[in-house]
Specification:
The chain is globular. The termini are far apart. The protein has helices at about 15-35, 45-55, 55-65, 70-100, 110-130, 150-165, 170-190, 195-215, 225-235, 250-260, 265-275, 280-290, 295-310, 315-320, 325-340, 345-360, 360-385, 395-415, 420-435; strands at about 1-5, 140. By secondary structure, it is mostly helical.
């Protein structure tokens, strides 16, 4: 069966793209306002809000950058990564600018609804101006019956979590784990086409995450209570002060999803954050595909899939609700993927997504900065000595310098960098002691 390829909306005819985008926006605004002020509409405000926030901004940015005709899965991954980055960057700008012009509660429903709707319209207009000469390519997607198996696992994970929460029964969860344990054998024995490896990896990772995160109607885990508290504080106050030191992932992304999807922060952490984190194994799969384990491409594909399943099957991956470092690891994986694929405008794509990494977790962003420096030094040494031919596409020295500068600037001037000051003082003390 052929359906419109919604995974590559940026490759549609520009008029069709604008009409569909604005139609979704108008439908969302109308249903959201009806749900807020007239009568309750089930499911639709949450579903349309999730689509508007998670997919539409990314597709529009890809059109503005004129990124076309790339792999379907990489395309949708970039669209989601850019959308999440847009939410945090634009939400931060709204918070700062609205306070400056005298709006007391910028992080509240109506200011966010109006500003985000206005931003989508402006970006759509800009995409039309920039990309109106592009001709539509590959607008259809073939749907296979084999897709029912991955979605069966997803259904079992949600239904099993419901039974566990309401009745304390775990039989469906055990059945789900048995099915998932068979997946590597299916891949090894070629029982599923390699074109479906991507959807299989995504379904397995999301099913494992949902079968634990959806248990109970409350948040649970090590840091989730503190994160929920900070996100709820932003929603109650309607404003976020940069000096508080908590990252935009918690104080911008979570409240925006909560307010514009009409969801409790608890369900944002239990439903939306696991969906976002489930993309990381898929990104890793596309990174591993660039490594040649042997001379046979089919074996390389299987090695890439099995390499992804190793961290996914590890208990730490799905032990609870994904925390902020989990989402940060996803953004780091996005940047790594852009290093291995020679995509159009990849410098700007990596720069936008790397900002989300900085906004998500301090430790991982600094670890990634150190890793970039070490990798850059090693690559220059290997090139200079002609001992190894590097086949992958690395990002430039300019990107490394710019990323490190942004990370340090954010921490020093925005997030009350007391730890940074302590590190500097300790370093100065050590140098003086050595001298």
């Amino acid at each position: 069966m052929r359906i419109p390829d919604f995974l590559r909306m940026n490759d549609w005819n520009i008029r069709r793209f604008i009409i569909v985008t604005l139609s979704i926006l108008v439908a969302y605004d109308g249903i959201f306002l009806t749900n807020k002020f007239l009568f309750k509409v089930p499911i639709l405000p949450q579903l349309l809000g999730f689509i508007i926030l998670t997919f539409i901004p990314g597709f529009i940015i890809l059109r503005i950058l004129r990124v076309h005709n790339i792999d379907r899965v990489i395309n949708i991954l970039l669209a989601i990564g850019l959308s999440l980055s847009f939410i945090m960057i634009f939400g931060l700008a709204v918070d700062i600018f609205f306070q400056y012009i005298g709006i007391a509660k910028p992080i509240s429903t109506l200011p966010l609804l109006v500003s985000f709707s206005f931003a989508i319209v402006i970006l759509s207009l800009l995409s039309y101006i920039r990309d109106r000469d592009f001709r539509e390519s590959q607008p259809f997607l073939n749907v296979r019956p084999l897709l029912l198996f991955p979605f069966l696992m997803l259904f079992l994970s949600i239904f099993g979590a419901y039974l566990m929460t309401m009745y304390g029964k775990n039989e469906v969860n055990i059945l789900l784990l048995l099915l998932i344990s068979v997946v590597p054998l299916i891949v090894i024995h070629d029982k599923i086409p390699k074109e479906l490896y991507s959807i299989l990896i995504f379904a397995v990772s999301l099913s494992l995450l949902y079968h634990t995160s959806l248990i109970s109607i409350y948040v649970w885990g090590s840091d989730q209570f503190f994160l929920t508290y900070y996100a709820n504080q932003v929603i109650e106050k309607g404003v976020w002060k940069l000096s508080e030191g908590v990252l935009p992932l918690i104080c911008i992304l979570a409240p925006v999803y909560s307010l514009l999807c009409d969801l409790s922060v608890i369900w944002v952490f239990k439903i939306i954050f696991p969906f976002i984190y489930s993309l990381m194994p898929l990104v890793l799969y596309y990174i591993y595909k660039k490594f040649n384990f042997c001379d046979r491409p089919t074996i390389n594909e299987k090695f890439a899939v099995l390499s992804v399943f190793i961290p996914v099957f590890f208990y730490v991956f799905y032990r609870g609700i994904p925390m902020k470092q989990c989402i940060a690891k996803l953004f780091m994986a996005f940047v790594l993927m852009l290093m291995f694929y020679n995509l159009p405008k990849r410098f700007f794509l990596a720069l936008i997504i790397s900002l989300s990494l900085i906004f998500s977790h301090y430790g991982i962003s600094y670890f990634f900065a150190i890793s970039l420096v070490i990798a850059l030094i090693i690559s220059y040494i290997l090139k200079y000595n002609n001992t190894l031919s590097l086949n992958f596409n690395t990002l430039s020295l300019n990107f490394v310098i710019l990323y490190i500068s942004l990370a340090i600037t954010w921490y020093m001037y925005v997030s009350s960098g007391c730890i940074f000051n302590s590190i500097v003082h300790i370093g100065v003390h050590i140098l003086r002691s050595l001298s």
